[in-house]
Amino acid sequence: MKPLRKIIFPAAGMGTRFLPATKASPKEMLTIVDKPLIQYGVEEALAAGMEQIIMITGRGKRAIEDHFDISTELEANLKSAGKSKLYKEVSRVSRMAEVVYVRQKQALGLGHAVLCARHWVGDEAFGVALADELIVGPKPAMRQLSDVYHKTGNSVIGLIQVPADQVSKYGIVAYQAGEDGLLRLTDMVEKPAVEDAPSHMAIVGRYIFTPRLMELLHDVKPGAGGEFQLTDAIAALAKEEPIHGVVLEGQRFDAGNPEGFLMANTLLGLQHEQYGKALRQLLKDHL
Questions:
Q1: Taking the domains of the chain in order of start, what are their residue ranges?
Q2: Which CATH architecture has domain 6-286?
Q3: Beta bridge partners of 190
Q4: Which of 37, 107, 163, 269 is the most exposed place for a label (fewest CB within 10 A)?
């Protein structure tokens, strides 16, 4: 088994749910307390041992590249001003990972975004993370998946249980429970009506795939709106080799919409060593 080193971050979306805030700034650069959303995802990947970051970007996403690049002038100014704590943090972000950028020239769906990284992935297993799915817990979500991958050598997908009225918003899986305690996924349906859903177990933006997934993505036919669905390739992969599901531990926020974004900021703000006390007092005064 080759080491799990690479992870893809699809980040070419326009962020329309956050307009006008995202008119000139990528949604991935919106901050949760004091860090951009995309940085949480990268740090989670690094905690799982994935050291090569492949960003799938589009027009207007240059700020992501600048964030993970070295800013010599900024670092020099912080150092000369004696702001050692800020200097160390800025320097750490710039040097935390090897990042490459691939332009998705057309918005043709999540499957197409992942396929854009095919050249960089080669014949290795790889992760995929949707940065606006923020999962907060003692054990990083990608680490929960990578532990199962290293145990089995098979593809692994992060799952959450959703209520019936939310089923039609997600890719939903059919599964069987194995004797080893692992879930084996047998099929996936994209945004089914609740009466057609095989379960209430939803895919939640964390994946590890064997190289075969890229080959199957290449053969996927476009669906509604001309988009190439990642779930179609996953369903095809499940017919050829085992795919395991991991019910993720931790609190999950859909930080790609304003409500989830505000909730994530509130929770992490309350937990922050510098800002938590003041935020708790503010909430106490106004609730």
A1: 6-286
A2: Alpha-Beta Complex (3.90)
A3: 171
A4: 163
